[in-house]
Design brief:
Distance between the termini: 61 Å
Structural class: mainly alpha
Strand content: under 5%
Mean pLDDT: 79
Helix content: 55-70%
Number of strands: 4
Low-confidence stretches: 1-7, 11-15, 40-47, 65-95, 1056-1066, 1076-1103, 1134-1140, 1157-1198, 1200-1213
Length: about 1300
């Protein structure tokens, strides 16, 4: 290789240079070799080809270095017996033609190997290509059966391990797709061939061939029918496969284990109609596993035992009952070896058995219970982390499965497990506490919750399942003792789940726990208040507030001597959780209490005790806030509402502070508490009482300073109550409201309020009442009072919006009258009334037929102008009405394209009208183009685009803005082929824009250019635009390239970089396409992105164990049943956790330093002042001198100024920014405070840093965009030092002179 680097001097001047973009001009003009190759590409070969399968085989062996010299120098191929020359008919075919054009989908995976550099992959490709060529030469159809036969023949002929592995791999693929009858018929020959290879390869160094042969044998056995398993040869072949499950090489062992599992679990006859309960080979497999474990169980390493336990983990759920029992006994026996890995694998086997939820024929309930009882003898130590976690998970799955099999037996075993798991909460490991809590929660949800309805009431004297539930709760309740204080958060979570699951039936045994919780909450500095509130809330939700308050009364009755109210925290908890309870309890308990507290508050207010009065008033208000929760799915609406209705009516009318709460309660009761017909009728019966009160409240003017929220709540309550009100009552209210509207004495506020009520009443009235209402509001549609006119249109909108019922019948019967009224009132419609008017027209247009086309024609100009209304709602309704009119024309027919053409002809005249009309017409056409993009003809869209391009020459910004929006939508909607015809026209129109237009719409033009460049390329767009646009085009190209690089970097870990840029996602709506925000280029502006990198934890479990000695001088008893707990997987020893912070300082000799509070405050103040005056102030001053100011410095400065009373308060405004807001004060030179007053240079100052230039580290300085700006910024800091150094050097030289 030549030396890289600079060219020798003088060479560069002799080199020829080419202009930018012309580097390819130096390519040679002659290309005779290419022409010769191209001329032979489609011609037939003149003679016999030398490219044969044998030649390829020889080439591969030469490349891989495996060619053996001597007698076997020529490679033997699988197809030697086929003496057919392997030349192809076309010169374009290669030695891999049989691979690349293989028509069998079985080998689609192999076709990816031909680019691999692996020798094994190349061998597989060569074998498949050869076999395919042979099958084709014999006229085969390349079926799976043909490949199976050819590969089996090849396997008997090959000798090299590489070829054998390749054939076995291909056989493994094809055997899965060979028809079962073929494999059943050829089982004897095929299995014999496989067994011979297995015996020959068992002790060889290569594992590839044996691995795939084992997989083939498993597939062959899986395809056999049930009858074949009665023959000894089948069982013998299976045992041959089974023997390799303890092989020393991992790949072979895993292949054998996977094959055994697939045979026992996935044999085809196991999924038929007459499938046996267990595979015929399951018993022999279980015996083999037990035999191997017993044979090697006593060894120290127990490698074979671990292999068998791994196999049992997958197979244990497939064995019959007797074998499961024997295997379980074996597992329990090997766990006594106290080998950590063996115990862990045995636990995994039990976990998989219970997790699989086997049938009774595999795991009966009695055996399940026996295993649970036996596992209690293997409870690990509470300090042994991983084994204890595994034991908890296994026991969780075991109990869940036992309850599934037999409820009573399973529930009987739960109390003991709850006791052991509760003890685990004392573990110092947080993971053990978390897993124990999760296990108990899962058991409560899976085992207890589904059966609580059948168990019934749970009391302390209950027997059977009820007694078991009570014992479990007592075990969890013990967690509230102080010794569990470190795990109280977990205990409260358990209690919360217990209350949710069992609270309704087991509340008699839970009252004492509720009292303990309330007492615990009152303890000072209790850290788990939120968790405790959730637990009590769960009790309120399940038991009901009545039961909870019996256990823990509020202790509030209005006669308290002190104002502590220790149980007042229960009120917010009840408010947030009360559901599905008796409404009568609120009437009998809380209402009298609220009345008493209100009276007490009023008495105290009259006595002048304002604070005490406010406290009692707040309490009574909190009690009233419970009412919406009591109204959520109450159980006694029909019986209790009548006793509460009068009080609610009085509260609404006379208590403004309770009005919003009571209205919310009524709405909740109607929407969530009236599912039953009787409840609905009961609440509806009081509509005649509540609605007049609500009407009167809504009609009252809002007092000065009040918020309009109560009026909105009242109106929403009216609308909700009208949904269950009788129509006759609604008609009566509507008639009275109409009279109130027509009354000349009514004020404007009253008339508007009554019209709001009419809007709410109209949808629920009958047709006669609606007709009378229409005649009442008709004059107001042309009213000069904008508010009244808007309300009148709102009434008409509600009537027209009815999809069915009286409103729909009225619209159909009065359609002509409505059309005439809406057309007549067109000129008098005010701007605020446009939104409801357009909504009315939308509902009416939906119901029009072809004979009403003239009505739509008359509406078009109005709707087009409304697209530029001030109101956003009016604009949205205008666009919706335009689209709805288009759908109406499509309904009118005859063809879709012709119907749309008729509709567009109505809009075209607007393009030659006034400026506003032109802009609105373009907007309308834009939305119609997007909505009907698939229905408009190509010629229509092209004609529209040409006309809009002409309008770009307008001098009005509104017209140009609308035209650019149309072009943007057209680029998204139109096909590239049709759009390409008009690119030149569009670019020429944009290029002729004035400078003012180009500057004003620069972002819109940039987005438009980006879309054109993505569709048609940079060079084309650049050539069509004037030179003044080229700069922005180059900028767009750079931004696009940068964005493409960022996307490639982001996707590099997941997929290969795409050569073409991915298409930008189109907006789902017209608003997204027309959005002015430059959202498409957001990624172009981000130079630096944070990329999270996953860090892998390399934690390996070591096969080591520690023996924990007995306490004190007591020796360790190895005959103790619990001796297994002494074998630990983690090294015992003193805890290496962090020291606990007790809040006091410690001296050097270990004594605690305790000061008084005043001393501490003074010391802290002194230290803070010294620290502030020292490093913080110096650093802040230096940063300020350098031109940077931190938030911390500003905060310290403001605090200092606020504390100094002698100084004036500084102004709030501080200069900053650019222009007139720039700071005009001169920046201090860094280090100016060290400058000597009378001499040159710097001087040291007492108590301050040495006079050097301290530059703070700032990561923003690494920004490449600011590199040029920051260059040379700090050069001036050392100039004085350099000058001083030079002067000192000269003086020293002068002193050295003789």
């Amino acid at each position: 290789m030549g030396r890289s680097g600079k060219l020798p001097s003088g060479v560069s001047a002799r080199l020829k240079r080419w202009k930018k973009g012309h580097s390819s001009d130096s390519n040679p003009a002659l290309c005779r070799h290419r022409q010769a190759a191209r001329s032979r590409f489609f011609s037939r070969p003149s003679g016999k080809s030398d490219l044969t399968v044998d030649a390829v085989k020889l080439h591969n062996e030469l490349q891989s270095g495996s060619l053996r010299l001597g007698k076997s120098e020529a490679p033997e191929t699988a197809m030697e017996e086929e003496d057919v020359p392997a030349f192809t008919e076309k010169s374009s075919a290669t030695f891999l033609s049989g691979l690349s054009d293989c028509t069998n989908v079985t080998f689609s995976k192999v076709q990816r190997f031909w680019e691999s550099n692996s020798a094994a992959h190349k061998e597989i490709c060569a074998v498949l290509a050869a076999v395919t060529e042979v099958i084709r030469s014999q006229g085969g159809k390349e079926t799976e059966t043909e490949y199976f036969a050819a590969l089996m023949t090849t396997m008997e002929a090959v000798e090299s391990p590489e070829s054998l592995a390749a054939v076995a791999y291909l056989l493994n693929l094809v055997l899965k797709r060979v028809p079962s009858p073929v494999l059943i018929k050829k089982f004897s020959d095929t299995s014999k061939a496989f067994m011979e290879i297995m015996s020959a390869q068992a002790s060889s160094g290569s594992t590839s061939a044996l691995r795939w042969v084992l997989s083939c044998l498993a597939t062959l056995l899986r395809k056999q029918d049930l009858e074949a398993w009665g023959y000894p040869v089948t069982v013998q072949v299976y045992h041959g496969l089974l023997s390799f499950t303890v092989h020393t090489k991992p790949k072979i062992r895993k292949a054998a284990q996977h094959g055994v599992c697939s045979v026992l679990k996935g044999s085809e006859f196991m999924f038929g109609e007459k499938a046996p309960a267990h595979h015929p080979a399951a018993i022999s497999t279980a015996k083999f596993c037990i035999q191997e474990i017993e044979k090697s169980g006593g060894s120290k390493e127990a490698t074979t035992t671990l292999h068998m336990l791994t196999l049992l983990r997958d197979l244990l759920p497939c064995f019959p009952e007797g074998m499961v029992k024997s295997c379980s006994e074996t597992l329990l026996r090997v766990m006594t070896l106290s080998h950590v890995l063996v115990t862990a694998c045995a636990m995994q086997a039990f976990h998989s058995l219970f997790h699989a939820k086997p049938s009774l024929s595999t795991l009966p309930a009695e055996l399940n219970a026996q295993i649970i009882t036996a596992l209690y003898d293997y409870v690990p130590s509470e300090n042994d982390l991983q084994p204890l976690l595994a034991w908890l998970k296994v026991m969780e799955k075991a109990h869940i499965n036992l309850v599934r099999l037999q409820r009573d037996l399973g529930l009987g075993h739960l109390p003991r497990f709850f006791g052991n798991a509760t003890t685990c909460l004392l573990s110092p490991h947080s993971q053990v506490v978390t897993v124990a809590t999760q296990s108990l929660q899962e058991i409560l949800k899976e085992c207890v919750a589904p059966h609580m309805a059948d168990i019934g009431s749970v009391t302390s004297s209950a027997s059977g399942p009820g007694q078991y539930v009570a014992k479990m709760f007592r075990a969890v309740e013990e967690g509230l003792m102080y010794k569990f204080h470190a795990a109280w958060s977990s205990v409260l979570q358990l209690l919360c789940v217990f209350f949710e699951v069992c609270g309704k039936q087991a509340h008699p045994v839970m009252k004492k726990c509720l009292q303990s919780l309330c007492d615990l909450r009152l303890s000072p500095h209790f850290p788990h208040t939120a968790a405790l509130d959730r637990a009590v809330g769960a009790a309120v939700a399940s038991m009901g507030p009545e039961v909870v308050l019996q256990a823990v009364p509020l202790e509030i009755d209005g006669s308290e001597e002190t104002l502590d109210f220790p149980r007042s925290w229960l009120l917010p908890v009840i408010r947030d959780h009360v559901r599905d309870t008796r409404l009568g309890f609120f009437t009998t308990y809380f209402l009298p209490l609220a009345t008493t507290l209100k009276s007490k508050a009023m008495d105290l207010a009259q006595a002048g005790s304002t604070v005490e009065s406010k406290i009692y008033d707040t309490l009574q208000w909190q009690i009233w806030t419970l009412l919406p929760g009591f109204c959520t799915r109450p159980t006694d609406v029909a019986a209790s509402f009548k006793g509460l209705a009068r009080t609610l009516g009085t509260a609404i009318s006379e208590r403004p502070d309770l009005r919003v709460t009571v209205c919310q309660a009524l709405r909740t009761l109607i929407t969530k508490g009236c599912e039953a017909e009787a409840d609905r009728a009961e609440v509806s019966r009081f509509a005649k009482n509540f609605l007049p009160i609500l009407f009167n409240l809504y009609g009252q003017p809002v007092a000065a300073g009040d918020t309009p929220a109560p009026r909105r709540a009242v109106l929403e309550t009216i609308k909700t109550y009208l949904t269950i009100t009788e129509p006759q009552l609604v008609n009566g209210f509507l008639e009275k409201a109409s009279e109130k509207v027509l009354d000349p004495a009514s004020s404007d506020f009253t008339r508007l309020s009554v019209l709001d009520l009419v809007v709410a009443l109209a949808p629920h009235a009958d047709e006669a009442a609606i007709s009378k209402l229409y005649s009442t509001i008709r004059p107001y549609l042309e009213s000069k009072a904008h508010g009244v006119q808007k309300k009148a249109y709102r009434v008409l909108e509600e009537v027209c919006a009815s999809p069915q019922g009286p409103g729909a019948h009225f619209v159909q019967s009065h359609l002509d009258d409505l059309k005439k009224t809406l057309l007549d009132s067109l000129r008098t419609t005010s701007s605020p009334a446009k939104r409801p008017r357009l909504k009315c027209l939308i509902h009416i247009v939906k119901k029009l037929t072809a004979e009403h086309e003239e009505f739509i024609t008359a509406l078009v100009p109005e709707v087009i102008l409304c697209t530029k209304e001030v109101s956003v709602g009016a604009r949205k309704n205008a666009f919706a009405l335009l689209v709805e009119m288009g759908h109406a024309f499509l309904r009118f027919g005859p063809s879709q394209e012709e119907a749309l053409q008729r509709y567009l002809i109505l809009i075209y005249p607007g393009l030659v009208g006034a400026v506003t009309m032109v802009s609105c017409s373009i907007l309308a056409l834009t939305h119609l183009l997007f909505e009907f993009k698939g229905l408009m003809g190509t010629s229509t869209v092209e004609q529209l685009l040409e006309n809009v391009c002409l309008l770009l020459a307008s001098r009005t910004r509104d017209v140009v803005k609308s035209a650019l929006g149309f072009i943007k939508v057209a680029v998204v909607v139109m096909d590239v082929v049709h759009l390409a015809k008009h690119v030149q026209l569009v670019m020429e129109a944009i290029g002729k824009l004035s400078d003012d237009m180009r500057r004003h719409f620069r972002m819109k033009l940039r987005n438009l250019f980006t879309k054109f460049i993505r569709k048609f390329g940079f060079e084309l767009v650049k050539g069509l635009l004037p030179e003044e646009y080229h700069k922005v085009l180059v900028n767009i190209r750079k931004a696009e390239a940068r964005a493409k690089r960022h996307r490639a970097l982001d996707q590099a870990a997941e997929e290969e970089e795409e050569e073409e840029e991915p298409a930008q996602g189109k907006g789902d709506s017209i608003e997204e396409i027309l959005a002015d925000s430059d959202s498409e280029d957001e990624d172009n502006e981000k130079e630096e992105r944070s990329r999270g990198r996953e860090q892998r934890r390399l934690a390996r479990q070591r096969s080591r164990a520690w023996l924990k000695e007995g306490g004190g001088d007591e020796p360790l008893n190895f005959l103790d049943p619990k001796v297994a707990q002494r074998v630990l997987a983690t090294q015992p020893g003193p805890g290496r956790g962090k020291k606990k912070d007790h809040g006091f300082k410690v001296s050097a000799d270990g004594r605690l330093i305790i000061r008084e509070e005043e001393d501490d405050a003074a010391t802290a103040r002194t230290e803070e002042e010294e620290g502030t005056k020292g490093e913080d102030e110096e650093m802040a001053d230096l940063i300020e001198d350098l031109g940077f100011r931190s938030k911390k410095h500003q905060k310290l400065k403001h605090q200092k100024e606020a504390d100094d009373e002698d100084l004036e308060v500084p102004p709030q405004y501080q200069a900053g920014g650019s222009g007139i807001h720039r700071p005009v004060a001169k920046k201090a030179t860094p280090g100016a405070e060290y400058k000597a007053k009378k001499a040159k240079g710097d001087v040291k100052k007492k108590g301050r840093l040495d006079p050097y230039a301290y530059i703070p580290l700032n990561r923003t300085k690494l920004n490449r965009r600011k590199k040029v700006k920051l260059q040379g910024q700090f050069k001036g800091l050392v100039k004085a030092a350099q000058r001083g150094s030079q002067v000192g050097r000269k003086l020293r030289k002068k002193d050295r002179r003789p």
